[in-house]
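Model it.
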Amino acid sequence: MKTLNVGIAGYGIVGKRRRTCIDANKALKLIAVCDKNFKSDGVFTDGTKYFQNFQTKRIAGRCYYYLSHTTCARASYL
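Modeled.
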């Protein structure tokens, strides 16, 4: 099975729900989160990177797909 690297734009209540959906799906791997309320850029303990701004250029060679909750639920059919 192919793994799809994904990120979350906005990490409030809905963003955290999206993370739960992504983490529960073997076809998806969360690799980045961005939210304007983060005080700085960094890395969560599980290795997921987080940023204050929506910036994909800062991580060369990676492709991010920012998914809605509905799209994430459908990804189980990949």
